[in-house]
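Researcher: I'm preparing a figure for a lab meeting and need a structural model of a single chain. I don't have an experimental structure, so a prediction will have to do for now. The sequence is pasted below. Please return the structure as tokens so I can convert it later.
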Amino acid sequence: MMKKKSGHIFVIFCAAFLAALSGFAQPQGLVITAGSTGDDQGNSIAIDGEGKIIVAGRFNNTFTFGSKQVSSLGSYDIFLARLDSTGEPEWLRTARGPGSDRAYGVLIDARNRIYLTGATDKTTNFGDVPVVSTGGSNNDFFLAQYASDGTLQWVRNAGSVGFDQGYDLALLPDEQVLAAGWFHGTAYFGDDTLRTPGTGDSDVFVLRYSPSGEQTGAWQIHGTGSARAYSIATDHFGNGYVTGLFSGELIAGADTLHSRGNDDIFLARLSPAGEWLWVRQLGSRGRDQAFAVEVDPEGFPVLAGLFSNRISAGEEQLISRGDTDILVVKFTPEGEVYQAMSAGSGSFERAQGLAIAPNGDIFVTGVMSSTASFEPFLAKSRGALDIFIAKYNRGGELYWVKTAGSSADDWSHSVAVDPQGRAWLAGQFRETARFGEHAITSTGSNDVLVARADDPRLSGILAPDFSEKVYVNQDYWVDILVDSLENLNETTFSLTYTAGEYITVPEPLRKNVILGPLLEGKARYSVRQDEQAGKLHLTIALEDTTAGLQGKGILARVRFSSAMSTPFNTEILYSFSDIYARDPHGNAIFLRKNERSLSLNGLEIWPGDTNLDGVVDQADVLPLGQFWNHTGPERPQASLRWQSQLAVPWQTIELTYADADGDGVISARDIFPIALNWKQRTGTAAKSTAGFTASTPGNSPPLPLSLRLAQNSGRGQAMVSLDLRESRELFGLAIRLRLGNGVRVADVRPGMFFEGRDILFIEQGDGPVVEVGLSLRSGTDSSARNGSLVTFLLETGEENSTFDQVFQVERITAIDAAGELLAAELVTEGDMTTAVSQTALPRFYLYQNEPNPFNPETRIRFQLAKPGRVRLVIRDNLGRIVRTLLDEERAAGEHSLVWNGRDSQGRTVASGVYFYQLQVAGSRVQTRKMLMMQ
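Model: Understood. Here is the structure written out token by token.
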């Protein structure tokens, strides 16, 4: 059955994906204190059916709780209080005596009856009812029941002449109550007598009581050393789950365990019939202790506490970071480990309190020190020991974790959930402690603390961002984005990544990890890489320690390099861990994290389509000349057959496509795939590749080309020359001819412009079309000059035939040494009557921006041959759209726009290379580069 109390000492930690870190933020939450000049603490808290807060603990001297005040009779006395929603006590009850009395566990049943357990010393007065301990001077277990108005209904005590304590309570489906604790020697519990073995220090007891106070059962777990129960929980079937610690040998029913270290953890299941069904053990060579157990809505028991050294929990191997770390283990009802998690620092952490909401949300509280890792987040203490409370969903995902405390030791012992789903904790604090914007000061050495921890407001989201297409053997940038940011002054986090054997951030780190536009000129940062762990640690702080960052944008940018050996389609998950953030006042703030995967791909190659225009034709000869003799990685499983193949990208994307046969060098052999796959189509013309698109003719004046009849033999042969009339820079060209009836090309020869340093490709089938590709080789002189480009020997097959209408030039493609397409203007000379279809100028021109480089603005001009819808965008060097300058219908003619160097959100862009890209509906895309300087 569910417990309407929070068992004493517990915390839960971690899960597959944790989500937030925050402080107690004003005006959220509520902080209530009570105290004396002595040592006071809140040990247990519960919420009744009316939403009232029940808190129990100990006090000494004159103790003030709101408007109520009481005085102690001994070193420690017990208090029990009910508070309204504002924290004001409605009533305050005490149990006082000359010794040391303690309250440890509180429970509320469906009738709002309150049960309290702990230990009494000597003679303790519960109101007017005296309770005398069995041993006279040593502690006895007690169980008391109160009405909702605070009236004592009954109190029972039991024990031995030794030290006996009740620690926790749980409610059974029939409204009976189970109490758990530990005892020494021979103890008398009603009509039942329990004895520790002669060699034992303490043993576990479990007692069952009816609502009227009648003891209806007693059970024992034996130990040859020390065996102690600190928490008990029940499920809806009436099974009880008991947890604690033991040393030496432990016997529960038919099961016997042996401790591995100083203390080991045990979890035992007690059936509704009172049989020990099983007992399980968790332990290392050091100190391992469990202080809390609860049962979730699915009937799975969850225990929590601390561990040291290395501990095995099922298949999980957990290693502590310091003295002791937090441990959380979920079991199946059959006792099998279901899940195990840990958290901690290099010092001391301990799980203290647990509450599970009806929807399965889990609230945990306890103590932490130094900088504790709640993976993937960090929590930092203000003093030696600080309080923390965390909220998880039922799947173990962390919603948030909050820390609070002073420069001294502060403790949280218990947590409960109210009807609104808010967490209330009980504990103690010293000196001046801070809970977000709340500051409280103790009256004595320790004061009672009761605090409500509301769900914090969102203060920011961290997220990785990158290009949709990333290739192996290339550098790429990962942007660290932040959204919904509020009042951030400093943050520390790790960008985590998988597949670390294939990717890294190159040295020097400060050159490849840079601040983003959101922080440029405003912050300082440090960076450290842990390649083995796949982490990049970043600390960023505003130069102005009183300032707080707001809004959204890019915090930082990280350049990664991928190895040539990276397998294609390697998935890399980018996420965040070790996150800590604070505002200018030093309060931790709430940062969530997103994660995202990218795939390192091979570049898709179609053998022969070297210019990626979607068809294999004479223009595919031009890249061979442009990149002649360049080398790069061979293509895995290279083939000349027409099929999609994946390649490791070379230094540039264009070089990779030019290696048509995939042998790792651009040479004459790359002609073969062009010839074998002539006229094959990929259906992917003008495809974008990592931010680059197939080029279109630039804004240079058209090449002045002419056709002339160089020689006419009169015997069915003629020589026709294509000439460049003016000195111009030209690297290669491709020509498509359509022959007249009965005409064929007998020979094609490079002209003086190309002769001796050319690559020539000719394709002439049975039809009337001939295609020729002609290019210089990379490294040869391409300076401006004029002269004959290519000559064609034509034959009709008949002597004395004329050459009227012998051929048409249907298309000319030309490039310069930079690979930019050039427009061509063709005329005929002399008395040659060949019908020539002049190459038309392109539908549009995109001119080079002016000025370039520029700062802060530049003008972009373009020319339209006819009206159409025009889209002009700015892209960064990863191909992502920075800003859309134009997307509308425009008339024919010249147009110009000014870009002011800002992105779509009005922020000034960083220095670097950008691309401006023009597209007219029904035409190809044209792209040019520009440089922003700051």
